[in-house]
TrEMBL record:
Signal peptide feature range: 1-21
This protein's UniProt keywords: Signal
Name of the protein in its database record: Outer membrane protein beta-barrel domain-containing protein
Superkingdom field: Bacteria
Any matching Pfam family: Phenol_MetA_deg
Organism per entry: Chryseobacterium kimseyorum
Length: 175
């Protein structure tokens, strides 16, 4: 009787703690992703740069993500100061859970002030960044993205940017 009772108790305990696949609904993980980047720079002539670039995306499939990205940058030196704000859509395609290709269209609004010549300017420019990179998993659904992007709309003599090629480092949670 004792053996039957212990065997029954073990059997019932096993059933109560086991997961039964038939009829159990599967919970889809949240498809929203969040992340961005933060940059700080220092240089000669009291140069200081602070940039914040938040992003929010939605995984359309396990490998395709689309969303909005913003960018705010403050620069200052002995000679000038500027504020730049940009916003636009992005799309990322992930493959092999370690690599990505990316497209990012941003429209920038720039306020520039030259301290030496008392000159002020408000400008706008659109940039289309195409590129890709490597992803390093740093948590369960968190990644650090390291990549290289090129602004295909960059024009050397008319652009507010110093070049078309930019490195990118950011973090994403939710992939």
């Amino acid at each position: 009787m004792k053996k039957l009772f212990i065997s029954s108790l073990i059997f019932i305990s096993g059933l109560s703690f086991s997961q039964i696949a038939v009829g159990t609904p599967t919970v889809e993980p949240n498809r929203w992703t969040f992340g961005g980047g933060l940059g700080v720079g220092f240089g000669s002539n009291s140069y200081f740069n602070l940039q914040v670039a938040p992003r929010a995306g939605y995984r359309l499939t396990n490998d395709l993500e689309a969303g909005l990205i913003g960018s705010v940058s403050w620069q200052s030196s002995d000679f000038y100061k500027s504020t730049m704000f940009g916003i636009g859509p992005f799309v990322n395609y992930y493959f092999a859970r370690s690599f990505f290709v990316s497209g990012n269209l941003q429209h920038y609004f720039v306020n520039y002030e030259d301290k030496l010549y008392d000159f002020k300017s408000d400008q706008q420019e659109t940039a289309l960044y195409l590129g890709g990179g490597y992803m390093l998993q740093i948590g369960d659904r968190s990644f650090m993205q390291i990549g290289l992007m090129y602004n295909v709309l960059y024009k050397e003599n008319t652009s507010i940017f110093s070049g078309g090629l930019i490195p990118s480092i950011g973090f994403v949670v939710g992939l």
